[in-house]
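Hey, I'm writing a tutorial for new members on how sequence and structure tokens pair up, and I'd like a real worked example in the thread rather than a made-up one. If someone can provide the structure for the chain below, I'll link this post from the tutorial.
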Amino acid sequence: MKIAQPDSAVTSISAQVTAFLSAPKCLIDGKPHAALSGKTYSVYNPADGSVLAEVPACGAEDVDLAVKAARRAFEGPWSQMLPAQRQGILLKIADLIEAHGEELAQLETLNQGKSIMLSRLIEVQSSAEYFRYMAGWATKIEGSTLDVSIPIPPGMRYQAYTRKEAVGVVAAITPWNFPLNMAVWKIAPALAAGCTVVLKPAEETPLTSIRLAEICLEAGVPEGVVNVVTGFGEETGAPLVAHPQVAKITFTGSTETGKLIGVQAMKDMKRVTLELGGKAPMIMFDDMDLDLLGVAAGIGSFFNTGQTCCAGVRIYAQKGIYEKALEVIANVTRSLAIGSGLDPRNQINPVVSARHQAHVKACIARGIEDGAKPVIGATAPSQGFFVAPELFTDVRQDMALMQDEVFGPVITMTPFDDADAAIAMANDTRYGLGASIWTTDINKMMRYVPKIEAGTVWVNSHNIPDQNMPFGGMKQSGIGREHGRGALDNYLEAKSVCVAYR
């Protein structure tokens, strides 16, 4: 099945999706796996609140099976493969993602709620491209030779060099906002490096992760190299993070959960990469190209219904353009069509769950209670997990609306006069993941980019990552970087070798 045109509406669910939803199972050691306890839990369609499927509720005993299978595979067939063979398998996975593209896209939209357009472009096409990108790195792992100055014993000479080796079994824990794409961000570089993986997807959105693991098998990945366990944080995630045979943890999710994982990792001295929350500012100078205001709001702020860690939710506009910017962005916000992601004409789709819907609505209510002024005041469909987009003015820096992650279609606008004051407000948060500057003055850009405390700073754009551009956060937005060569290095250990000879 080929990927449909990105902007084509889904008129019927594919037979492959229907068949998969009837009985999705985890994948451990290359085989479908039901939880040993027999327990399952429901995953939902956010567009109407209906039960979409029942999936295994894995516990510590299931996690143990998965990690041990991954360790056997790491010590066995996977470590025997040549880098070029790993590269070939990753390229095959990319081809199969595209071959199953429409199935994966429909499955993602049904489970996560996002626009089918985003499922096709980001979850499917970008994931295939990421596997191809990381496949190229599989044959480019290298060390270096070192000149050393060891004087003893007399007459002995030395040659030293370094080699890079796969770290081992990787515990990968992914979020619910981009389920397939985030799984690929972790699995692809881990496999390129020669590691094996136990993936624990977010409990709300496990379906495309299971399907991806099946595709990896189809592509020729040996049994046990990619395993998937589904379930909840305490029952599934915690024993995975703490398992003694896990060598590396990679997590994308909330800062609060990331801190818990980081503490456990330090207790065990495991390698860890954490990509956590954000509260991204967009700083709009009065010399910006005003034609970009629509792009700033549509892609920068409301992309994926605001459920992105780099969403530009705090807009600071210089006073010379503030009123115009407010008018344009308010009109853009009012114009966004709300509805099911199966129809790509809908630009605001349901949030992922009833729990998250309640959280976003509570943040809006708290903002109003604290004195912020809602500009839009729209209503959302009553069926499903929808939240109407909202724009606030009259906000203070100390409000929860400005400091805490909402992770939904909610933005604020604040005027500024002095540029240094705007930078200070932009940095006035515990997060530091993404930010953007909007200006046609290269001097401002060069002057202020170094002053912004964020892992990525866009100029005249926002919220657009690339597979070759390191991605990660400062402050409480995480530790480490994904993408680029650094993503591969996350899964490699450096070993020094020193050879003595006469």
